[in-house]
Amino acid sequence: MSEEMKKIASDDGHEKVLALSLSPEQRAKIIEVRKLIGTLSDKASVYCSDASISRYLKSQNWNVKKASQMLKLSLKWRHEYKPEEISWDEVSDEAETGKIYRPNYYDKHGRPVLIMRTNRQRSKSLKEEIKHFVYCMENAILNLPPNQEEVVWLVDFHGFNLSNISFKMTREVSHILQKYYPQRLGLAIMYDAPKIFQPFFSMVKVLLDPETCNKVKFVYSNDGNTKKIMEDLFDMDQLEQAFGGNDDTEFDTNKYAKRMRDDDNKMYSLWTQANSVSFVSHNIPSTDVFGADMVNRRDKKGIAIE
């Protein structure tokens, strides 16, 4: 490994912590996956860190063959869709209502938070909705602190009606989340979901694997037991009032846009640095120093999701 690569790796201790947490058998399975996926491009090499491969193995109960097949499909999707190249300006029309955004705080476990406001759904394009969702996931992963891999979703159901949801959109999101972002969802909190949502969720549950389904929690503001979930997870002074917190700050599109453009620059900068490193072999263990899979930006080609 070059001195430059060692310096990049030293910026994040996640791989070292991971190495200590894995058994010899699990480390051997990571090596097996590397052999099965074969030679990789530089970008794919960065994505296929030990931590990343470990997530795929965990999602498949450490079955090497299944994890390898899943990872290959994920790499194919990333190569074609280029999620790490989506910029704020490409999704700003979708995002300006604040229907999905990343607040500037973390939960008590250090997990980035993504908030969804169901009553702010205005999109008429499934393709653009999906692009915005993927952008939000990539941005949240970009902002993962060291030694944290998961993202928390908070879904606000105040003002909800059935026109706010689409089964087709939900199906696509479930597919992308489970197939291309395994082990990234830490928790999904459905806050004050009305009774009319329950039949819809019953249909959605068939799309979710058991582990993902178990991460969906329903919390109600008039239920002390479920409300405690929020108090245990969040600093209530940072949490929005819509979720029982004390922060009454309204979503500001202009301020948020500036944060996102700053993050776009951060992603570009880090991937420029990463791509300056020569990944001679896919057997060189890359790191999760960049959180997600950040690459040099190029013009989008408008490739649709399969």
TrEMBL record:
Residues 88-251 form the CRAL-TRIO domain. InterPro entries: CRAL-TRIO_dom (IPR001251), CRAL-TRIO_dom_sf (IPR036865), CRAL/TRIO_N_dom_sf (IPR036273), PI_Transfer_CRAL-TRIO (IPR052578). SMART domains: SEC14 (SM00516). GO terms for molecular function: phosphatidylinositol transfer activity. PANTHER family: CRAL-TRIO LIPID BINDING DOMAIN, CRAL_TRIO DOMAIN-CONTAINING PROTEIN-RELATED, GH16843P. This is Phosphatidylinositol transfer protein 3-like.
